[in-house]
Amino acid sequence: MKFKLIVFDWDGTLMDSEARIVDSIRSAFADVGEPPPSRQVARNVIGLGLDEAMAVLWPEGGERQRSRVVERYRHHFFRANDQPSDLFPGALEVLDWLQARGYLLGVATGKSRRGLEAVLEDTGLKHRFHATRCADEAGSKPHPEMLRQLMAELGVRPGDTLMVGDTEYDMELAHNAGASALAVCYGVHEPERLLRHRPLDCLASLTEIPRWLEPGARI
């Protein structure tokens, strides 16, 4: 299959940020006097927008209560948490390879715009992507709005678009937008969970993407 636009999820796909996100969620709940969710429960919502994630984690909490948790999460994630978040091995090389071959590159993430801009600046990747969308700018995954906006902005049809992600929310986002989905199996959701959504494939490493797109390719 030939694609023109490749859209990446961020957390768990390009960046190994699971520990920092989970720790920030648990600390935020402790700050407001609520029992923190288990690490497994907290990691399950990675990929959703913050409001949607808190609604899943604390369904009995009111909107005002959950907004306090969101505020404390942001405090921990941006200021108090010193847990490192690094790009997965090969991420930069894969993006360079894709860019050199003329692929359009995008990001569709559950992060806020503030959060995405911070990591793009930290990693030096801001100018690697032709367009990006965040959960505070469009409907949270698996709603198709983020991907539809990216395709419209870049003038690419769903049939020419590939969504790469590590969660079932990414797989559903792609299908809901009429695009193709490619799973990576080293992130938040287990391969069995991803495969239920019938992605084109499930890769063990980002570095497999060039050979998957163009057999015989090297990076």
Task: Give an account of the 3D structure.
With about 220 residues, this protein is an alpha/beta fold. It folds into 2 domains: about 5-15 and about 85-215, HAD superfamily/HAD-like (Rossmann fold); about 20-80, DNA polymerase, domain 1 (Orthogonal Bundle), CATH 1.10.150. Helix content is about 45%, strand content about 15%. The protein has helices spanning about 20-30, 40-45, 50-55, 65-80, 90-100, 115-125, 145-155, 170-175, 190-195, 210-215; strands at about 5-10, 15, 85, 105-110, 130-135, 160-165, 180-185, 200-205. The protein has a 6-stranded parallel sheet, with helices on both faces. A two-stranded antiparallel ribbon has the order 2-3. Helix 1 (about 20-30) packs across helix 4 and helix 3 packs across helix 4 (about 65-80). The longest helix has 18 residues, at about 65-80. The radius of gyration is 17 Å and the shape is globular. The relative contact order is 0.17. The mean pLDDT is about 95.
Short description:
With 219 residues, the chain is of the alpha/beta class. Helix content is 44%, strand content 14%.
Global Rg: 17 Å
- Which strand order do you get reading across the main beta sheet? 5-4-1-6-7-8
Task: Look at the structure and give the CATH class of the largest domain.
Answer: Alpha Beta
Beta-strand proportion: 5-15%
Estimated structural class: alpha/beta
Helix content: 40-55%
